[in-house]
Input
Amino acid sequence: MKLPASMQVFERGWLSSNNILFTGSKETALVDSGYATHAPQTLALVGHGLGGRPLDRLFNTHLHSDHCGGNAALQRAYACRTAIPAGEADKVRGWDADALTYKATGQQCERFRFDDTIAPGDVLQFGDMTWQALGAPGHDPNSLIFYCADERILISADALWENGFGVVFPELQGESGFAEVRATLELIASLDVKLVIPGHGAPFTGVARALETAFSRLDYFVGDPTRNAQNAIKVFLKFLLLEKQAIPLAQLEPMLTGMILFREANRRYLNKEEPELVHWAVAQLVRAGAAEIQSDRLANKD
Output
């Protein structure tokens, strides 16, 4: 499906979320800004896409580090007006890195400011198109998705990918998340969507198939919540490898066990000795072809 002329998608991979750039007749806007270490690349992509225009507005679907890590760099470059989910305002205002999960996941995010907040039901203008902000809790309690009914396009963030959805983080801390994922998927199923632009991966049109896959994956996690915890542990390690590309084996245990969510997932669901759990995670990534051991270090494989 061809995108509207005022809309560009920068597919970034798994360390940085996709970025969606809008060049409307009155304003330009960007949805999500990628990870901190990719900020120079984000600036280059956005600058090229703008073609000499300023970036007027920046919007975040949610505030995980891979979706907002480029905020500060974009604000310095463009002084763009920035809007974040309303439920995150106090955390950002006081910059609570614990509540924002950056310390809990061992990830980077340079402090940024915000000017506006977005709440479910808000109507926004991107690229001369009307978009509705919809609440999409589950992966993150305050996450939003953006839907353009006229174009039948959904910016789904990490609520729906072509082959699943993001880690259900609230469940790792003993809070409700699976029910919220189901409600979000049911909400998406109720919309007339022709094209989905996910937080990661290529835009896709097979919406019914993606939803079927997502509901099946959710049922798999609900049937045994340890599976969500195991998935999270693997994701934590893979994200580290994406960021650093290679990590000495001796550093893996202190890096992973220093993450609050790693320890929480283990304590609540897995109950393994920490060295054993680190070894398990390494073995899982190697077996899946997502990493390889090179002498005394673990290296990323794409």
Notes: The chain has a mean pLDDT of 97. Residues 226-300 form a domain with the Arc Repressor Mutant, subunit A fold (CATH 1.10.10.10). The first strand starts at residue 7 and ends at 10.
